[in-house]
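New here. Your pick:
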Amino acid sequence: MPEKDKFVIWPIYFDAARSRVEGRMVSLKDAVNEPDLDMIISASIRSGLKPEIEREKLHPKCWHQAESAGRILVAKNGPKSAILKRIAGSLKVKYKKHGYQGKKKYQ
């Protein structure tokens, strides 16, 4: 179980192919296609966060999908929504502007 002074961040939070009900936590304009754990790690480091990586953990909503493995823990330095926006901004800059294209399943 994560420590009480850490937020859990899953790649699913940034997946443009998912709806809010399915687990996306950022706006669709801030989401990217097919985010993976390594993308989230890179973006969180670029955002000035110091992530703790847990590659073996599975998201509760999609525990049966191997591609959903992995999460990071970051220190609680303000609201979780603000931290997610910082990470999403870094993801957007790196992967949308550099032509990262994935399958888009949700509009």
The helical segments are 37-46, 80-96. The domain at 6-96 is CATH 3.30.56.30 (Phenylalanyl-tRNA Synthetase; Chain B, domain 1). The first helix runs from residue 37 to 46. The longest strand covers residues 52-58.
